[in-house]
Amino acid sequence: KKVWIATSNAHKLEEFQEMLGADVEIKSFKDLKEPIDIVEDGKTFEENALIKARALYERVHEPVFADDSGLEVDAMDKAPGVYSARFMGEDTSYAIKNDFILRQVEGKTRTARYVCAIAYVDGSEERVYRGEVEGEISEKPIGSNGFGYDPIFYYPPYQTTLANVSDEKKHAISHRGIALRRFLEDQNQ
Ligand code: ITT
């Protein structure tokens, strides 16, 4: 089986490969001869996922997924949200972004969630699936697995951050894992 994923984020690709298994061949933006210029100007995760999936479908005319995801921090009015990749600039390290968020939640409620919208476009149908996982901003960064905000995303049932658990444990409860399983269950109906 082969599927396109409209992403240039290598960490997302790795997670999809782990979750879908080695027998699924994944292609992404890096496999295109000509780059696609995409303006991700949606206001919601769902809109942005559809924008990316439609753009790649128009190029390849084969089944395409896209993942738009991010972190909502309640004490920051749900920022960085859909701006999670661009928040403080794409070139700013996550060590700096994570420290900034730790300072923002000092003395405030620490609740946060990851959200993921997975869009699927194949020319005859368009579908979007959402997954969310509730957590808290940790007291300090912990762990080196995962990517992005994982070192500060504390998941109470595991009593540690998502950067401090195995890939399997992350996928079992993650926003991306939930959204992907919703898609797969729908396909099996
Ligand atoms: P593409 O649009 O090319 O897919 P992107 O990284 O720009 O890549 P998004 O706009 O969806 O994608 O931004 C998602 C950001 O949210 C990502 O860069 C991380 O900062 C954060 N994020 C999403 N899922 C995450 C996860 O599982 N662990 C840690 N951080 C995550």
From TrEMBL:
This is RdgB/HAM1 family non-canonical purine NTP pyrophosphatase. It comes from Dubosiella muris. The lineage of its organism: Bacteria, Bacillati, Bacillota, Erysipelotrichia, Erysipelotrichales. The gene is rdgB.
